[in-house]
Structures are given as structure tokens and as C-alpha cells.
Amino acid sequence: MPPFYYNSFHVTVPNLLESQQTGFQRFLFEGISRELSYFSTPIDHNLPAIGKIRIYIKHQNWALEKPSHGELWCKKNRHTYGAWLSVPVVLEHDLGHKKRSRIRLGKIPIMDSKGGFLINGVPRAVIHQVLRAPGIYFQSRWVGNKKKKKKRKRCYSATLISESGTWLRIEKDPKGRFWLWVKRNKKVSILLLLGLMGYECIDDTQACLFPSFIGVEEPNFLLPSLRWWQEDDDLGDHLPTIKWCAIHLYDAVFRGPFRRDLNLYTLTKTDKSASLRPGPPLYEEMCEEGMIQNELIEKRFYLGRLGRFNLERRLGLSNFWNCFLSITQSQIVHPLLNNLIEIEHDPVLYFGYKDLLRVMHRLALFTHGDEYEDDIDHLKNKRVLSVGELMQQELHRGMKELITYAADTEEWWKRPRKKRYKKYELALGWWDLTVQDFFPGTHVSEGFKRFFVSHPLSQFMDQTNGLAHLAQKRRMSCLGPGGLTRQTASFRIRDIHPSQYGRVCPIETPEGTSAGLVSSLASHAKISRYGSLCSPLRPVSSQANLTSFQYVSSQYEEKYWISTGDRMQVDGGTIVPARYQQEFVTTEWDQVSLIDVFPMQYFSVASSLIPFLEHDDANRALMGANMQRQALPLLSLERAIVGTGMEWQVGFESGTLLRAKEPCRVGYVDAMKIATQGRGINNSLIRFNQLSTYQRSNQNTCFHQRPFVSLGEYVESGETIADGPNTVGGQLALGKNVLVAYTPWEGYNFEDAVLISERMIYDHVYTSLQIEKHQITICETEAGPELVTREVPHLREQFLRHLDPQGIVRVGSWVEVGDVLVGRLVPRGQGYEVTPQERLLAAIFGERVVTMDEKCLRVPLRGRGRVIDAHWVHREDTSFGRIKSIYVHILQRRTIQVGDKVAGRHGNKGIVSKILPREDMPHLQDGTPLDMALSPLGVPSRMNVGQLFECLLGLAGSFLGRHYRIMPFDERCEQEASRKLVLSQLWEARRYTSHRWVFEADSLGKSYLLDGRTGDVFKQPATVGKAYMLKLVHQVDDKIHARSTGPYSKVTQQPLRGRSKRGGQRIGEMEAWALEGFGAANTLQEMFTLKSDDMLGRNKLLNTIIEGRPIPSFPSDLPEACRLLLWELRALCVRTQILHTTLFSSIVP
């Protein structure tokens, strides 16, 4: 990968998959050990027939077993690519006997070489999640009558966000009183929580002992709350002790399931045979055993290391620890507090007593204007969860279920075991006891399987092309568990924040309800260890050392003046654009401390691939970035004439190509493998590199690798030896350079329609490969096993001609619609009786009575092609019996046709409307016919002028034989730099080719075209050039649908809707108006009756067609939808009756 040079500064784009790989490595080396140590507490059992035993989990000696099969084998056989997590377990009897064994806790999926996971043979990817960082956040709101603005007052609050637990809000009302809000609608006095944490003073004299602790001279912020406490009839007679505060706090706030749990806990402590019954809970034993401290403070307000860091940063607690030492020996501080804090060693990882007082002090300072509110949308107040943290959370849940299962003594004795133990057989019961009786090894595996299959952040991997494969792994989402929802997310959250500059791409985001909630990492951004986004910046003082730069988070970036690196001389002084504290200003060069390292570091990988990006509207740039990920791999690839330079890096790290792992010499090359021999020290190392040929991706595209090296060639480490489906020589290649003109042609390119030449078909310019998967399951039924055989009765040999003797289609066969791929016979049920007609036919033709039904796998409509693979797959999970499946892959070659979608890199998309012969296409003055004609009206209205620059520069490059790599935002070097570059290259191309029409002074960038049908010159010149156009995955073969007969709804008897259900045409009132306007009365009547839900007329029509009689006009019967309405009314006890009448007769029931 060649480096970029920007302002004489050597820049190399970082590893684009580093965020995924680093997060998973951190989970393997740190997360597993942390979770196993969390559950390392011994488990005690008192079994009736065995006695007291204790189970120890030796978490220090855990290990991951090597995967038994490789990635390719797991993908083909639909298995999960993972490693078993094993740990030593010791069973210790109270008599001194011990048993040691290593058990498997579960199977952990392993990240493959491309940054994804193989779950049941299906590639999946886990994207990052953006959440509110744990810590404290101060905000305010207006209270009072909205109509009387003068009487409205501000109410200040502090929201505590825990890493795991309850969100807590502390509010200071206009009267100066402090309240505790839990679960939004529950409000109690803050003194309850203070008393619960150990604060036992209720008068003013004791509160005056806290000045050095809270950092203020007069601690009067507690006085309003204390006065309200003493004036309250229910609270004034009680001292806020821990036990009393717990009772009142749980009665007022924590009602529901948690309170029932406490009641059950208390009852089971006092009476082993007690059951849950209504009544007031008993808190005495709970308070004595310290459950209040454990359940409320440690579990519900757990901050974690990141939360503690953010809390200290926000509250300014750097000197607070020393102030706290002065009161730790005071009698008013509960002794419980001394066990909570270890000041010099480990920081407190949960919200404690001292933090609460400091927060109250900060809220009191808002009244005097000495505090500021927090911007919750700032990146410093958010954190990014990578795949490693998400998997660690899932491992925690699985281990918690496993330990709960192992610790349940009563349920353990009811579980099925090999032997039943008697009370007097102590030795026999102990020696037959195994560790596997307590740890079944399924909880962790099932937890990971649920996570990767059903979690919103675990997505079906996008394998349309290499860019889509890479961009998905750099995606971030605010949705998911603990995040936002599409329905409640406001515009403020979706909008671009200044702190995202250089960290989150401002362009690439989905269109629709997920806009702003799903975003992409900037090309140079990194995720730190604690989940903060960092951007590279270079200190000004280190200009001599051009390779030194540092990654800075948004929190520390606000302290410095940061410039983009370009300067401007104004009145003898150097003025530069800079940003400071989220503002974009101009300042003198002397104030600048940091400089950006790269002009494209603000955009994502897909956005960085758009040349002349600065000349496109943001909405069209968004479409261009998204549509590049939808480009199909073509049969013949071609590099873009005009690019940005990121093509090397994206192709290099897309995971689709094959690279040399060491300096070597190519010893053997064919279409299936490449053999290399090491050089130097590794001279004896011979490596066989297997190529992936004609593999199906998740989007049914063809993944195929082609050798890029020749026999005897010397290759260095990291160089490309085999190209992928979207790379040429290691560079990303998504489309083709075609000759286009922006000119109208008979209305066929009106709006977003595109006119193309038939050369696109004959030369296979936009021909792509599609691989369709067909699956059939073979299982055992109650009537017997299903059979796979070639001998299928009542089927002609024409449909069975491609089957082998086992009943499976032969690889390499060309199959048409209706051909049998797998012959399957399903046994009939036990209640089925052979009819007399079947016996008669069997006796006449001398055949046996068939007791099995034909359920063969056939080629569906528009599914013809070449069979490239057919194999058996045995299910990995055998809990539902031995179920086998047969997979058949059919390869199709699809040329471009009317209805296919094509697009450029600037959001200029369109549908192919007509394919013209080459001789009828408009052609240039040298006789070259156009490949594509686009509408010129789509450029000024959509403001994506970048496509014109690319088109003209591509024309110059095609004549000069050059490839251009244009850095976006080149206008910073010179005004109109893009226009000058394009015109200079066109002038050079004119001189090189001697074609005056390439560069004409009276119409720069335009040329007169000739009509291919008449040879006449068009009246106006048109812009002509070479544009890089893509063929998108939206193909007409996957969308077009027609139906003659098909299924009907069982309820309304109307045709189903949708292509997947073989649905039919549906008609409503607007369609009826259109037919009425054309006077098509018979068509209208037929669509509302025979083609809809007139069952009687439908049967009559079918009999008429079968008998070959002319179709008469059937009288319409009562529609089935009307019958359904009548039955629903009768179900509501509404009596309904159908009355028939004529024009001159009375009503007859």
C-alpha cells in the first residue's frame, strides 16, 4: 500500500478492520479471564445421598481448544466456526475426597480472517453500538404554567447513568429541596438514599461538620430538605437509619418483582419450608446480612472504571480524595462507608456516599450560575461498544445461567442421571458423581447462538462486493438493547454534532427511519480501549519529524486550536481556518497547536472513494456512498480512470484477495491453487494457497478469485497473488469506464431513465454471475423415513434426465425450469387408505400401489442455469433428531437488460429503458458510438456536478492512457483547481490526438454529436466523456413477477400479495377510477369478480375453459368478502339477512 503525502507529511491509512480485530482480541485475552474470575466463588451443595460437597472453578487455567475444522469446511457443512472454552473444575467432599476434571463450558465463535463470524455456515458481522457513557450529567428544565412565562422557574437535575444497573436522577426544585427519582415517576426525598448509604445526621449542627468534605464554606444546600423532613408527619419522628431508610425506600420506589424477591429471600432465610405469600416484607435479616448494600448500591449503581473516570472528571474530584480523609474517622459517618472506599489502591467502581453529596453541591451551584449544563450529544459523553464487549456481556449471561443451574440443589436431584443413589450408599454415590452432572455445557453455547442469530447488532454479512464487506464492519448504531429506537429518536440526536468532526462520517448514513442513528467510522478514526472515538492530529512543534502524530479524543480536542493545514496571507499575517471549542473560526498561525493529518480523514471509506466529492450535494454524495456498496461483481473488471487513491487500501483490506505471507517465488499456478516457495531463510517452506472459485455469497453473488501472478515470479511479503471478485491488481474495481453523453434521445432517457448500446450485451460489459441456492430437507416422519431416489412415479423421463442413480442432480448439468434437482418421496400417513381407483389402475397396468407422495425439488421459474455444486449436509445440532439436507447451487450468467439499475459514484442512478443497436446510437465526430446516454436535466437540479468533472477527466485519460487519483477538496490548494485540472488535461488530449472536438474554445467540455439513424448533427453540443458506471444488485430478474393461477387467501378468497407468495393483481378504488375513465366495463367487472373472490363464477369459468366452450358473461355471485363481513356481524350477535329484489317486484326474502 503506497502512502499518501499531504503537506509533505507521510500518511498511511490505518488498518480498516482494526476496531473489530482489536475488540475481539481484547475479549480473548482479558474478557474471558475477567468473567471467569467473577464467577469463581465456590458452590456448596448438600445432597441427600452424598453429603456436603463444594465445587471450585479454577479460572486461572482456562483454555480455548483449537477448532476441529477450518473455515471452508464449516461453511460448506453449515457448522459454526468456533473453539470450545474449557476450564478445570474440582469437586471436594466434606470428608476430604477430591475429583478434578476439565469441562467444556461452551463453544465460543471465533472471528475469521475477514473480521466476521461463521454461524451455522452463514457469515455474519457484529457492528459497533454507540451508547451513553456511564457517569453524571447535569441538565435543567422549566417548571410551572407554560402560559405564565414570568412565573416559570428552572429546575436543575443530575442524571446518573450506571454501566449496569438503574438510572438515577437527582433533582433540585425551585424551593431548594432535593429529590430522588427512580423509574421516572417515583419521587422520594434524597435523605432516604443518604441515610441508606450511611449519612445519619438530621440537624444543622451535624451538617456543619462537612465543609471540608463537600468543598463549600456553608453547607446550606441540605437545609431545605432537612426542614421538609422534620415538618412531614410521617417522616419527622424517624431517624434516617439504614434499616428504616431501606424499608421506606423500597416501599416507595422498588415495588413489584424486586420487592417480591426480597420477601421470598427473607422468608426462605427464616423458614426453609416457607413459600411466597402476600404481606409486608421483613427487612431485619436482609439489613443485617448486608443485602441492602449489595443489591441497591453495588448492583444498581455500578459505574465501572469508565463511569468512575467520567464522574471524577465532571465533578472535579482530583483533590476530593484528600478532603475526604479528614472526616473518615468521624462518628457521623456510618462504619459501612469505610468498607466501600480504598482511596490509595482501587477506585470505587460504584456510586457512593461521597459522590452523592458532591452532586448535590454541584446542583446548588447552578442557582448562582457557577455551573454549566452537559451536552448529551457530545462524543465525550458517549462510548462505543465493540464486538468484544458485546460478547463479554453474552458470556456473563451464559455463565450466570450456568452457575445458577449448578447451584440449584433441589432441581439437581430431580435431573435424570445414570444411577439412583440411596442414602446409605455414600461411597457409591460419591464415586459415581461427575462434574458433568452439574455443568451440562449448553448454556454458554446457546447464549452465543442466540446472540449471533437474533441480536439486532449481529447482522447478515453484506457480501455484495469488497467495499460492502468492509464498510459493514466499520458501522456504528445507536439502536439495539440499551440504545435508542427509531420511533422516539429526535432530530437533535440524528443531526451532525461538531465533536464528530474527523471521527464519524457526516455523509454515509442510511436513508429513511435509520438516518442519523446508523453511521460509519471516519477513514482514520480509531476506537480507544474505553470506547471513545479518536482522530489523528499532528503537533505543530513537530514539523521536523513528519511521521509523528497522536490520536486525540473529542474531550481533549476542545482545549486546543486545530487547523486543517492550509494557510492564507492577509495584510502580512498568516491566517488559517481553525476550530476551537466546537466552533469553526479563523485565527493566526501562532495560536494553532495541532494540525489535521489528511484531508480525507473526516469521511468514511465509501465516501472517500468519490472523486470530486466537494462538488456534490451532500444528499447525492450519501446516495453515491451507499450505492457503491450495492455494485455487482462483473465478469470482466476494469479500474476507474479517475479515482481518489483509496482504491488500493480498500482492495487490500477487503478480505477478498489473496496476499503473500512472506517473500517467496511462485512455483505452481492454476485456477484452483497457487504454490509458493519461500526465499532466504524460508527457502524450504512451500505453501499451498487454495483459491475460492465460484462460491456463493450471502447476496447470491459469485465470489471467485483469479491468479494475479505467473509461474516463476518473485513476490514480496504482502503483495497480491490472487485477485478477488472486485479487485484488479489489488485495486478496488466496482464498475466499467463507458463512453457517456448528457443528451436527450426521443424521451427514452427522461428523468432517471438510461439509454444504452447493445455493445453492453455483446461484449459482456455489464455481465455478472449469480448463484442461486436451492435446499431440501430429508427427515424421518411418523410414517417412515423420506426417500431420495431417481425412481419417481408419474413423472416423465424428461424431468429426471439430470439425476444420478442416487436421485441428486449431476454437477455440471444445464437445467431448465421444471427439471427435478432432487427426487424425494414422502410416505403417506397411517390414516391413509388406498382408494378403489388406485387398486383398479394397479391391477390394469400391473404396478404396485404407490404409498408415497412425490415432493421433489424442482427448478423454479426463471431459475435455469448450470449446476455447480450439490452436496449433503448433516445438522450440527442433533437435539431435534438426525435431519439431513441437500443443497444445490445453480450458476446463472446475467447480461444487462431493460429494467436493470445502473448508477455512478455521485448519486446519479437510473433504470435501463431501452437498448439500441450500435449503429443507431449517437456517435462522436470520429465515428465512435456512445455506450450510454444520460439525461442532462438530472445534473443542475441535483447539484452533483462532480460527475461532469469525472466524465471529462476520464475522456482525457482514455486518450492519454493515464489514470488519475484526485484528492478531494483540492480547492484548498488553488481556487477552481478542479476546473483547471480538467481543462488542462483536455487540452493535452487534443494536442495528442489532433482531435479539435476534444477541446473547443467556444464550448469547453462539450462536443457536437451525430445522430446514428440519419447522420445529422444535433443542434446543441453535449457533454461527452468516460464515466465510471456501476451495475447495481437491483436486477429486474429478481423483481419482475406475473401470475396466471396461484394461491388464494383462505379467509377472503382473494389472491395473495407479493412475489414470494406467487401473489396476484390486486385492485382498489383508484384502479377502478382508471378503468372507468377508459370505459373498460367488462375488464372492471372481471377484475372485481372472477379474478377476485367470486368463487362460484371462478368455478364456472374453469369448467368452461376445460370443456372448450366460449366464455359467456357469468352473473356475479355474492363476493366472499361480503360473506365474511356477514359472518363477523353474526359473531357480534347482529342478525343479518340477504334480500334479493328486482326493479318492479316487491322485496322477497
Q: How much of the residues is beta strand, in percent?
A: 15-25%
Tell me the radius of gyration: 37 Å
Given as residue ranges, the uncertain stretches (5+ residues, pLDDT < 50) are 1-9, 201-221, 225-231, 233-244, 252-294, 318-346, 418-428
The CATH H-level superfamily of the largest domain is DNA-directed RNA polymerase, subunit 2, domain 6
Mean pLDDT: 81
Structural class: alpha+beta
Note the total helix count: 32
> Could you please say which CATH topology of the largest domain applies here?
Dna-directed Rna Polymerase Ii 140kd Polypeptide, Chain: B, Domain 6
What's the overall geometry? globular
| Total strands | 60
* Biggest beta-sheet profile: 8 strands, mixed
CATH class of the largest domain: Mainly Beta
- Name of the CATH architecture of the largest domain: Beta Barrel
DSSP helix fraction: 25-40%
Counting structural domains, the number is: 7
Q: End-to-end distance, in Å?
A: 88 Å
